[in-house]
Design goal:
The longest helix is centred in the C-terminal third of the chain and has 23 residues. It contains 12 helices and no strands. It is an all-alpha fold and 194 residues long. The chain has a domain of 116 residues: AhpD-like (Up-down Bundle), CATH 1.20.1290.
Length: 194
């Protein structure tokens, strides 16, 4: 059971129900997360912003979903690592490609632009100073416009920060996620070695 109780249908307002339904249709976040976040005005506003960031903008939605899942697996969020965007799937993102984010640099699933985005996401998650360098931005500028870089960075920031909160809520433990997707265990093992 999550650490904050999900709202029940009978107690939800029309706005809360609409946001929960939007989460069901979009898939990321899923209704469980939405049922918790809609309890507060800040959570409702975040859900609206997140839907626009993940499913709007100019970057391809499958790329943004791959970035989201990569960051989620790096902080071992069982919930975020196993939830999938229905919008990204409808636009061609496969589970094989999502799981290939664990070894994206050597994977044939990704083109150079996608690898640059995943490198940035990896560095973003690595620590406060990891993206603070000219070479990082030179790499990005080979593949992305400045508008796209801003969108990518904000996606990374939201995924990292809110993902930590989601993980702490215990909507799904890392062990439960590994039971759902056994390849996550391999990712955890490689992280432990480093």
């Amino acid at each position: 059971m999550p650490r904050i109780r999900p709202i029940e249908d009978a107690e939800a307002t029309e706005t809360q129900r609409l946001l929960i339904e939007s989460a069901r249709v979009n898939g990321a976040p899923d209704p469980l997360c939405a049922r918790i976040y809609v309890r507060s005005e800040a959570g409702r506003n975040w859900l609206r912003m997140w839907n626009e960031l993940l499913n709007g903008g100019i970057l391809p939605i499958p790329l943004k979903e791959a970035v989201r899942v990569l960051i989620s697996t790096k902080h071992f969020c069982g919930y975020c690592s196993t939830v999938r965007s229905n919008v990204a799937i409808a636009r061609g993102l496969t589970e094989d490609k999502v799981l290939a984010t664990m070894y994206f640099e050597t994977s044939d699933h990704f083109n150079e632009k996608e690898k640059a985005a995943l490198r940035f996401a990896t560095l973003f998650k690595a620590g406060d100073d990891a993206i603070d360098s000219d070479p990082v931005y030179e790499d990005l500028k080979k593949h992305f416009t400045e508008e796209e870089i801003i969108e990518l960075a904000l996606l990374c920031a939201q995924t990292d920060g809110v993902g930590k909160f989601a993980r702490s809520l215990q909507m799904r433990t890392w062990e439960e996620a590994c039971d759902l997707q056994p390849l996550l265990r391999a990712r955890a093992g490689k992280s432990a070695v480093k």
